[in-house]
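Q: What does the assembly look like in three dimensions?
Context provided by user:
Components: two
Sequences:
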Amino acid sequence: MPDKNSDLIRLDYKVILEMIENKSRVLDLGCGDGHLLQLLKNKKSCSVTGIEIDEKEIYKCVEKGISVSHDDIDSSLSDFGDKRFDYIILNESLQQVLNPKNVILESLRISKKVIVGIPNFCYFMARFQIFFQGRVPVTKELPYQWFDTPNLRFLSLKDFINFCKANNIKILDKVGISNNKIVHVKRNFFANLGIFLLEK
Amino acid sequence: MRSINENSVGFVETKFYSCCEPPNELILSSGEKLGPITIAYETYGTLNKDKSNAILIFHALTGDAHAAGFHKGDNKPGWWDNMIGPNKAFDTEKYFIICSNVIGSCKGSTGPSSIDPKTKKPYGLSFPIVTINDMVATQKKLIDHLGIKKLLSTAGGSMGGMQALSWSVLFPEYLDSAIIIATNTIHTPQQIAFHEVARQAIKADPDWQNGDYYGKSIPARGLAVARMMGHITYMSDKSMQEKFGRRLQNKEKLGYDFSSDFEIENYLKHRGDSFVQRFDANSWLYLSKALDYFDLSEGKKLSDVFSRSLLKFLVISFTSDWLYPPYQTKQIVKALKVNEIDVSNIEIDASYGHDSFLVETEDQSRLIEHFLKRVTKEQ
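A: Here is the predicted structure of the complete assembly.
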């Protein structure tokens, strides 16, 4: 049955919700205020938990009834046993961790599947800014100036695909998003966000 | 007297429960027996029909059963009054709150200052050493006596947090959840060291008389120093700086003698002296020992002591707590995660040191209120 509120859900959340099966065990790395986990708990009957570094967000998660760990992603994955989760979500948080390769590989160890959402640093608006303006891109999707960005890594969707190949990670599904629409062609050019479903 | 507003549980009385009459004494961790045992406790709110809304609160080293509301004639409320009451974190409109005094204490439960029925004199040092697990064993008897089959939650900070941990390991099937605040699973050498200095101060007081001072003059000096020592570890560098700085007490300039100069000196002295009026030196020795003996895993791997369960945990620590620093509290979270137990944890940015759990109640309230709502819903 179509959900009349589903139009209010962010498109990247919708894409992630569709990738996840009902009643899965899900860990969201960098879960923010816990909204995505709440959707998974309520709409997909998932058992959910999150890791978040920002104290303010922890209160919001607890208020939503979501269990959450106040921790940084880089150092907190080693506590979990192998294939402890069905899905790990890294939605726009991978570019902020210190050691992304380790985080991906650890995630694939403790979870059957991993969903990664990354902002595409080489989508056309960013390319235009670099090419024509000679500036490091600052766009709606990449809103930060060089001096205040939380992002430690800058990559394109193509870079990520190459990374997966080099590390024998299977990409089961990939979705490009631009301006709240799904991008079907030339994702690395048109999409400002790529969402990948991974397995190892 | 402070006016009793609508957020207070109002006037309360301490109740008493007796158990472990010989020959059914409690067998303590040491192997010794203790009985009869009296447990002082208070309750707030109403136990619902299916007895599913009970929450057991644990006090810290020098605390007591009087967690909320007012005793007749007192102008100060219970020690966690800002957390317990109508529409507070532990909402007495919804939950039935129980707080009992630990054995070994001097606040109504059986301890070294109680009368030994065999000798008709205070136990003194003939009182057996009790542990956190022993305290928990008596609380379990109280809960059974109240007819409660399962607690909705348990909660405590510092020594109270250790009791909550001990409950979750000894009686996981009698709980739905646990709230663990500013504590550790094991007493470290540094924590033992602070206690030993305080115990030495008590024992060095000539009035201590090997614990046999009841009815005579009490080892006030030694106990006051012990309290001063403890109080330093409960504060933080920052909170002392903010509260006292290097301000002088009743002086314009340094005295160049050994009378006290600084406000902090007077404050500690005042804290020590007022503590002596309300706490028994022997109880301090016994309870500090119970803390020092605490080792939840008893030499095993910490992750091995928790069994997989549906228990839900909320684990809280404070950035400025250097007595039980956040990294120690986080060991609990690690062990729970390994066992796939549902846990939320937070390190609250607070400047009051270890005492934050008693003082910084606003953030804790937000967390506990919603955590309890969720536990109730998923019961």
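Follow-up: The longest helix of chain A spans residues 100-110.
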